[in-house]
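Structure in, sequence out. Go:
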C-alpha cells in the first residue's frame, strides 16, 4: 500500500539549498487521511521509518503492530548540483533520478543501493508464511514491482501507484 497523500505543496522553483530543505519538509510533513476499510485485521505489517508511512498505518484499523524497517524507506533525492539559481522542481526531480539511475554518488542512494535494499527485504519476506501488508512509497514500489515480477509474483505492473492504493502481489505457484 502506498502511503496517504502528503500535506505538502511543492514550490515551482528552488535553489539547491531550498530544494534540499523542501525534501526534508516533505519527509516530515503530515498526511491527508483517507477512509479505507481494511478487511485483514490480523496481518504482518511492514512500514518504512518515514513519517508518512507510520501516519498512514495509524489511521488503519489493524490489530497488528508494524515492523519498522529502513529497507523500505523511499529512495531519497538530493540536489543534482549546487547553485543559487532557481531551477524548476520537475528538473530537480528528473535529474536527481537520472543520477540515481546511473549510480552517481551525488545522490544519497544509488540504483545499486536501492536494488540491494530490495533484495535484502525480499529475502526477509520469503521466510514469512502469512499475508503481508507493506506501507511504503511510490518510487520504491516501482522498483520493488520489477523485482517481484522477476521472482515470479503476479500483480499490478503499474509504473505509478496512487496514494492509499492497495497493490496485491501473489507468488505464482510452481506446478
Amino acid at each position: 500500500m502506498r502511503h496517504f497523500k502528503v500535506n505538502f505543496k511543492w514550490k515551482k522553483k528552488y535553489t539547491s539549498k531550498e530544494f534540499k530543505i523542501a525534501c526534508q519538509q516533505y519527509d516530515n510533513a503530515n498526511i491527508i487521511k483517507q477512509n479505507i476499510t481494511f478487511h485483514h485485521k490480523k496481518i504482518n505489517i511492514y512500514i518504512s521509518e518515514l513519517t508518512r508511512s507510520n501516519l498512514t498505518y495509524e489511521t488503519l484499523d489493524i490489530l497488528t503492530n508494524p515492523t519498522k524497517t529502513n529497507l523500505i524507506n523511499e529512495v531519497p533525492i538530493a540536489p543534482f548540483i549546487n547553485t543559487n539559481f532557481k531551477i524548476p522542481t520537475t528538473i530537480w526531480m528528473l535529474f536527481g533520478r537520472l543520477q540515481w539511475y546511473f549510480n552517481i554518488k551525488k545522490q544519497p542512494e544509488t540504483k545499486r543501493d536501492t536494488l540491494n535494499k530490495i533484495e535484502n527485504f525480499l529475502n526477509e519476506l520469503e521466510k514469512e508464511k502469512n499475508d503481508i501488508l507493506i506501507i511504503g512509497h511510490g518510487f520504491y514500489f516501482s522498483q520493488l514491482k520489477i523485482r517481484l515480477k522477476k521472482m515470479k509474483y503476479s500483480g499490478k505492473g503499474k509504473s505509478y501507484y496512487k496514494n492509499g492504493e492497495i497493490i496485491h502481489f501473489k507468488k505464482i505457484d510452481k506446478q
